[in-house]
Amino acid sequence: MNENAIRDILEDIVIHVMSQLGPQAAVPCPEGEPIAVELSARHVHLSEADALALFGAPLTPVRDLSQPGQFLCRERVRLIGPKGVMDNIAVLGPARGSSQVEISRTDARILGVDAPVRQSGDIDGTPGIILASQTGIVGLERGVIVAARHIHMTPSDAHRLGVRDNERVCVRVGGERPLVLEDVVVRVHENFRLSMHIDFDEGNSAGWSSAVTGTIIGRKGEHGLCRP
Amino acid sequence: MNENAIRDILEDIVIHVMSQLGPQAAVPCPEGEPIAVELSARHVHLSEADALALFGAPLTPVRDLSQPGQFLCRERVRLIGPKGVMDNIAVLGPARGSSQVEISRTDARILGVDAPVRQSGDIDGTPGIILASQTGIVGLERGVIVAARHIHMTPSDAHRLGVRDNERVCVRVGGERPLVLEDVVVRVHENFRLSMHIDFDEGNSAGWSSAVTGTIIGRKGEHGLCRP
């Protein structure tokens, strides 16, 4: 058997193996570092104008959140939708350019609002809702979203995990009811702290507890499937 | 290059490829047949005695369900937990040996009941709840569960899909928010019809619509991870 014949056989084997592995085979998978998973309860971000209209004063911080610079406010609001009302909703600060309401699909059904899955800040074309305090009322023309599941991280985290800003990855969440969430958005910023955020529907589906961690197991593949 | 040298090279290649594929590589994956995914809303199964105590008469069928022999009843109940109450809860027939209440984790939080994830019928050691109708009240000492996600199928379906009764498989659910659910219990019976059942938390997490299907992508692996 000469060298060319051997080369042909090896090429056939490599082509066959690659076809079995599929289109993602050549992409190296990131390491399996455990990432803290935090549940985001329904909450509201307010513009300065809307905060003033509702409370007559700027927002009052009461507790720092896991992402640096973000805080829980003393103020609470009522969400009034066409089908239902939810009371005592957390307001997160600091104030933003536009008010935004982040709810779960379960909440959306109760309120009667057809909220789309969006990244924070991407509120064009989203439905509105009524916000009320003890002393004020504000009608938002838009801003109600179901927050897309995402991971906050620093550029250094991204480098170590082998992922890029805005990339979509698959994350295995190892709770009592383990699952793999696809389409998890990577969000990279110097001021972020490494943490994955999912909503209560996702947390309940995973049997979440505070000890639960997530592991990036792959990137979104051409067929919408992550390969470990 | 002689035949033994070629054999050595090929063996090295095979060993290298197998190590890349991991321990599950040798297990053949079932076919990717789409399976209908149905959402199970919170509901109650009643024993004959509890149905009589609540309604003074046997259950009245109003609509057949997807699983042959199962039906929705005209009767509705109120669930009364230590923290909350839920009204207008569906009763499914026919009557069973023991009453059983199937709720989501979201419902469990509202009612204040620490319901474990269980297969239907497996209610030993589960918490109880109060059931009420317009005319009666029944205190269940046990029977409140979060139903484990599962797939009903016939023996012929199981043969075709390459799975066995009580096996746990991983299912990709391709909704607006795609995910892979691990620990999906296969339930095989002559009287079943092929259909996957998930609860509203899971449906909301997947961005479920009636067109959504699930695909078995693997068996539960040694590392708790399904390999496509």
Q: Can you walk through the features of this model?
A:
The structure is a homodimer of 228-residue chains. By secondary structure, chain A is an alpha/beta fold. Chain A folds into 2 domains: 91 residues, Barwin-like endoglucanases (Beta Barrel); 107 residues, no CATH class. Chain A is built from 5 helices and 15 strands. In chain A, the strands form 2 sheets. In chain A, strands 2, 3, 4, 5, 6, 7, 8, 9 and 10 form a 9-stranded mixed β-sheet that branches. A 6-stranded mixed β-barrel of chain A has the order 1-14-11-13-12-15. Chain A is elongated. In chain A, 38% of the residues are buried. About 4% of the residues of chain A have low confidence. The interface between A and B is large, with 36 and 39 residues.
H/E topology pattern of chain A: HEEHEEEEHEEEEEHEEEHE
Mean pLDDT of chain A: 89
The greatest inter-chain interface is formed by: A-B, 36 and 39 residues
Give the C-alpha Rg of chain A.
22 Å
| Tertiary shape of chain A | elongated
